[in-house]
Design goal:
The protein has 69 residues and is mainly beta. It contains one helix and five strands, in the order βββββα. The chain has one domain.
């Protein structure tokens, strides 16, 4: 999976409880993982999680990213 605009594999999501808290995620070989494993217990990614590309202006639902690839 990669960004449909720029091809990046690096994304971030915002914490639904705190608009200023973000979590960096990356997608390698079709597997989604948090860049900081210590945060794994704090975040649950669901298909409708709003996801943002870390390199360009693309954003959308996580499930949309999976469909585009």
């Amino acid at each position: 999976m990669k960004c449909p605009i720029c091809g990046s594999h690096d994304f971030f999501v915002k914490d639904p409880e705190d608009a200023y808290e973000t979590y960096e995620i990356e997608i390698k070989e079709g597997e989604l993982s948090l860049c900081d494993p210590a945060e794994a217990g704090e975040l649950q990614l669901v298909p409708d999680t709003e996801t943002y590309c870390d390199k360009c202006s693309w954003h959308g639902k996580l499930q949309e990213l999976k469909k585009m690839t």
